[in-house]
Design a protein that fits this description.
With 244 residues, the chain is α/β, with parallel strands linked by helices. It has a single domain, classed as 3-Layer(aba) Sandwich (Rossmann fold), CATH 3.40.50.1820. Helix 3 crosses helix 4. The longest helix is centred in the C-terminal third of the chain and has 19 residues.
Amino acid sequence: MIEQNLELATTNGTMSTFVTHPETSGPFPVVLFLMDAPGKREELHDMARRISANGYYVMLPNLYYRDTPSFTVHREDPASAQYMYELMGNLTNRMVAEDVGDLIAYAETVEAADASSVGVTGYCMSGPFALWVAAEFPNVIKAAATIHGVRLAVDGEDSPHSRASEISAEVLVMAAERDHYVDKPHFDRLVDALDTAGVEHTSEWVMDVDHGFVFPQRPLFNKSAAERHWELLSSMFDRTLRNS
């Protein structure tokens, strides 16, 4: 495997981006891995490696780069946790769409990447970003996943569910039964929007798990549900990105 830590120039600054892909048999479809609120860190690098090992060019950017060149929360420090919420609050769907445009533009210049076939996966904070950018770039984003994502179907013009009709990608949604950010009516509102728009999707309300169930270093990690996520994510990427 090849790994790089890029300092990617954007119109808004320099975005540190972890890139991983196989050494041979490229070019590889691109997967954009959008971080959760605790920041770009080795736990996420390992998850990106797992995706890339299946034959993908994976890009994991620090979405907080406008405010700080790097950040990883220290939950035992109240000041660090508070700063995380400030950083998270500074991001919008539209800002991340700009960043995704820059990531795709960079991938178009890389011999190992096939930027005509892009998937995106977002977790927690980035769940809505994944759906928003799928609507923003319907010609290249073929698959989008939101895993215990937040603010997926809310009142307001920046709600991802309001753009369901613009999504041409296949979509994966997984929401946790015990999640104070997304209750069952919230989940149902998103699913109804996807159904009404005719979006091909797999949407699962995952019973008996908590928000953050995917992350192995979290106390609420659920191995069975996490592996289910990997199964569904891998099959969607293989189905949509390799045959596009």
